[in-house]
Amino acid sequence: MLSAKTTNKSIFKSTINRIVGYIVLFTVVIMFSACNKDNGGDAEPKETYDPTPYDLKIPQGFPDMNIPEDNPMTVEGVKLGRRLFYDPILSGDKTQACADCHAPEFSFTDHGKRFSEGINGTKGRRNAMAVINVGWMPKLFWDGSRDSLEDQALEPVPNPDEMHLAWTDAANRLNSHPEYPDLFFNAFGTRDIDSMLVVKAIAQFERTMISSNSKWDRYLAGEAELSAAESRGFEIFFSEKGDCFHCHSTILFTDNLFHNNGLDSVFNNDKGLYEVTGDDDDIGKFKTPTLRNLVFTAPYMHDGRFETLREVIDFYSEGVKYSPTIDPLMKKVDQGGVQLDEGQKNDLIAFLKTLTDSTFVNNPDYANPFTNE
To answer: What pTM was computed for the model?
Structure first.
């Protein structure tokens, strides 16, 4: 017979062997499971969010563009923003898109209308500004009430005088759409669409809308010559004779500031920047618009009061009115303006037309994507 000591030793050894066997089996199962997942197996593969950085070309002579860190530009984001810009899905009755007030053939303005109309036929009180080189604008709208393109794009959709759709309803439409959730995933890595992602996409598209191929640009590059009339107009523009350069001297042809340029002696219906700041010194001040592509963007001024360039120049020549907040740059207000003769007015118009960039308004990258589908 075996001793009790020997028996206990055998039992202990058998128990240890079983425990080791369980550990080995458990390890093999875990490793097999992991390998099975790595090789596909029955597990659902994770989607890859891998957007393509957008290579934004800054024209020679233009300043660097300030792009928000939380909205880097991607090919997918720009594509999505372009689609949203043209899609009436963001309006209450699905009849109006951003492009309806910012048409490409008119340098993205509401051509011919003093005041744009919303989906209910309601007219606003200001002229639609051109969406051109807006990536360099630190303030948006005539009164500077928005600080970024993303912030600006939040306004028109819920505005009852414009697209008249609550952002929650707009988001629900996009989330239930057969294509938009995938497009948002490609652009932002999520299918949970909200207003901030919508405006980020639109802002990305708008930053690509750069105009830099006018005759004036080609002249600066040594690729074109100005005519005699254009050269005389250039001298008027960039001298005290015309006084245009004070507010429009940069490559963007706007200083991106706010001025009371003498349109009225009293401002009752629209007080401009004052309505944002509440500062009496800002009454009658409005944002300086770019002069690029003026031939496409009539009517002119914040209220579209002038239908032609000639009317604008007549105003600055002999129609300027004094008010307490008139800009000091309007040095000849006492005589009604800069007092140009007929020949000088014609020469100035000839120069302003050199700022026309037909390639911008015909750029297929900015065109309605739905017409090509």
So the answer is: 0.87
